[in-house]
Amino acid sequence: MASVRKLLSFVAALFWTISFAHAEDTLIVADQKGQQKALLEAAGQDKNLSYTLQWTEFEAAAPLLQALAANAVDTGIAGDGPFLFAWGANLPIKAAFLVPPRGGGESTAVITTTSSPIHNAADLSGKRIGTGKGSIGHLLLLRLIATGAIPAPTPHIVFLAPAQAKAALDTKQIDAWSTWEPYVSLAVVQSHAHNIVDGRNVMPNNSFFVATNKALATKHVRLADFYKRMTAAYAWGTEHQAEYAAILGRQTGLPLPVATVVAKHLIAAPAPLTPKVIQQEQTTLDAYRSGGFLRDAGKLEDAFDLTVSPSQ
User: A single Pfam family, by name (predicted)?
Assistant: First the structure.
């Protein structure tokens, strides 16, 4: 009986070792609405990998960042606003690679219905505006308030997930929705919503590939390879926007006219992080602090890992 127990213990240990090795050979990537996966596959950059690439999809950055904090995924893309909002709450994550302003800031916007009397940012004064707490849409509102683009009285911000915000806007429970792609183009192209004001010249508009502290410590080379492939994929997308839009539509279910606009807005040129990029993000951190958030956040530079290079 003792020998049987020893054998079972050995098998269990062997199974654990194999499972652990398999986990180490896998890079789990969190995506928003399938956009990164579509681009990588359209560009053919998902071929000949020395590791297994596994995708997990989220509808917004907040749950994606929570999954990172739980080490359920290794890396994923998020806007600077939601990333710093999550990092400021002491989540064990860091920005590891830059995706610079996409669409010049047009990918984040405040939208209203066609029948709305709201026509400009000043008209948002005192209105009920839906967005996700800590989201890039939330950041846009805080910056519009801070710069005076939305004058007093301050609008009432209603924290809602994207699906809830759309339903609330359609039923006039809120006056406007501060959101991001692909929701901006879905509303504007498909529902003829009005784009009242966007993120151009208001905030940095950076996005980042964010990684867990654990992945940065144990999967550094795989992360560098993945970011290198995503950089090549974005370069391909710049030259082949029609092909990217087509596969984006097929993989996400977005209508082709919507996918075409989204593809145009989301194409960028990813690059390693620099001290200048970090300095830009002081504006983002200050915006949240002025809104009463992240008062106890640490030093801004601690939110970034500058050691990941796609040339590795």
Answer: NMT1
